[in-house]
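Hello Y.,

Per our agreement to keep a running log of every chain we model this quarter, I'm adding this entry. I've kept the format consistent with earlier entries: sequence first, then predicted structure.
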Amino acid sequence: MTTNRNKQDIIIFDTTLRDGEQSPGASMNLSEKIRIAEVLEDMGVDVIEAGFPIASDGDFESVNEISKLSKNSIICGLSRSSKGDIERCAEAVKPAKRGRIHTFISTSPVHMKFKLQMDPKDVHQAVIDSVTYARNFTDDVEWSCEDGSRSDHDFLCQTIESAIKSGATTINIPDTVGYAMPSEYANLIKMVMNRVPNIDKAIISVHCHNDLGMAVANSLAAVQSGARQVECTINGLGERAGNAAMEEIVMGLKTRQDQLPYQTNIDSTLIMKASKLVSTITGFSVQPNKAIVGANAFAHESGIHQDGMLKNAQTYEIMTPSSVGLTESKLVMGKHSGRHAFREKLIELGYDLGDNAIQDAFKRFKNLADIKKEIYDEDIVAIVDDAIVRKYDNISLQGLEVLCGTEHRPPKASIKLDIEGDSKSIQMSGDGPVDAIFKGIKEITNMAPKLQLYQVHAVTQGTDAQAEVTVRLEEKGKTVNGQGADPDTMVASAKAYINALNKLLVKREKTLPTSLSA
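Predicted structure for the entry above:
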C-alpha cells in the first residue's frame, strides 16, 4: 500500500499488537491477535507491526501466522540491533506478501550511558551493521533511533544518514518517553529534513508516547513538518500512558483538511468496530470522555447544546457519528426474533460467524431476551464478544450460586468449574459475594494472583442492563486483565476473573527481553 504514494499521503503504521500489548495486562493470545489483525487490514492499515519475534515463541508464532494470512498490509516485526533478533524477525515475516524488519537502538546520551552502556561510536557502528544485515532479508527496513527526541542533534543526524546509506527506507524518530512538546517535535523533524543530506531517500516516521498527553498533537505537528508515516495504536493502547491513538490521528486528518491537507487509506467507518474489539480482547475499557470512541463522544446533555443540536448538528458536532461507524441503537431484536433476523443483525454489526458460532450466539441471545425486555445492539455485541474471548479458555465456568444479603452472613458462593475437561466444585465464604467467588476460584485452580483492579459498568441503560466486569490480576510481576459480561453481575465477575486466570496461564510461558521500547 505504500507504493506509488504522493506527498500528501500519510502511511498509517499500527502497533497495537506490539507496543499496545506491552501495556500491563494487555497480553493477547494467537487467535485474538489474528482477529485484531484482520480488522486492521479491513480498515486499510498500511503497516501492521504484529509483534517482537525474539520476545517469545508465542510472539514469533503470532507474527508468522499474521504474515501468512495478510492480503494487503505490510507485516512488520520489531528487532533490536543484534543479528539473532534480526534473523528471528526475518524468519517470522518471511511468509508475508510484503514483510518489514523494524530494527532499533537508543541514541540519546542517557540511554547510551545507562541502558546500553555503549560509546556513541559503537552505537553508530551498530546502526550501520544492523541495517546492513537486515537488508540481506528484505528491501523494506525501518530503523528507529530510540529516545530520538532527547538525542543530540549532531549525533542523531549522523546515525540517520548512516542508516539510510546502509539501506533503511523508513526512518522512525520516536518520542519514546513522551517528553516533547508539539512545536519542539515539529522543529526536530524540520531539522532532520534540512540537515540529513540523503533524507529524501527515506520516509520519516514518528512514534509518540502519551506521558504528557501530547502523543497525537506531536504526531500531527510532525506531519505538518514533513513526516509521512505515523505509528499509532487503537484506543491509544500502549505501555505507561500509551501511544498516539489511531482513531484521533485519522479523524484529525480527515476533519481538519484546512490545516492538514493529507489523506490516509483508513476506512474510518470501521473505527468503532476496531475500538470495541481491542477493548474486549484486552479488557481495557474505553473511558467515556475519550475522543472519537468514548461513550460520550457524541452525547449531549447540556440544554444549550441539545437546543443547538436540534437546530443544526454542526453547532456542536464537528464530525458525524456515522463517519466512525457509530450507529444509533434500535430496539428491533427481542425474544420473538428468529435466527435469520439475528444473523442479519450480526452482519449489520460487522460479525462474520460460522454456523456453529451463530447457533451458540443465538442461544445466548435467546437466554438474554428472556431476562431483558429490550435488547440493544450493544447487548448483542457484548454476548458475541464474550463468547469469542472465552473460546480457547482452559478454565470455564459451569455453575455459580451465591447466597448474600442481610440474612446470609457471611456471603457464600457455590462454584463449579471445568478445568481442561475436568469438573471441580467448591463452596466458599467471604467478606462479600465477589470475595467469596474469587476465593473459591483461587482454591479450585490452585492459583493465587493478587487482585489489582475490579470494576463494573453497565453495557446499556436500565436496571436490567448487562454488567461488564474488568478484573486485573498480578502474579510475579506479570499483569493481565480479564473481562466478562452477563446480566448477573456475580456471573460476569466470575467470568472476568476466570478470563484473567486463563491469560495468566499464557503469560507464565512468555518471557520478554529486557528492552522492548522504540
